[in-house]
Amino acid sequence: MDLRTFTREIEACKQRWNRRTLQYVVSMAGIALRARKAAGDRLWGKWISDELHMDRGTIFRYVRVAAFARRHVALKQHLKSLTISKIYALTRLPGTRASEIIRRANVASMSDMNFIRMLSRWAPRKQHKPSAKNLLRAMNAALRRIESSLKRWQDHDLTLPVTERMRLRGRLMRAEKALHRIARSAAAM
User: What is the pTM assigned to this prediction?
Assistant: First the structure.
């Protein structure tokens, strides 16, 4: 399946609109969905990474925004006045709640961060399924932060109070015991 036609359409879309506009995101979603229908999921995923040099998650976010815009056609003028970050955040809300928020007068003038903080009260929390890969990635990130903090303490010749040092040592020892329990349970399997 030759997807070069869709690649050219994507390139034209990138030249025509600013990437931070609703029109760009909706156009990209439409082209991507047509390419998916023409190629099938497997070739489509390869096309996204090889030809577009994009993440599939970004394309799926574009598709979610396009579906949101279709559901809220009556609010098109309001949506155009919002930044794309605000629209991404709105797509995670349940149906009628998004409509109520869009109609508020002060929404367009709010900063993106304040808007997202406001929405966090209503947005459902995404539950991440724990997997060995995700948990290991999180542990490595935490260890990198610990190592970085320790290096900064050493670089600036700061002293750590004894009580704090003992408290941190206790927490690290509990973490090491938990790591040993994980290793024993893995060996038992």
Answer: 0.58
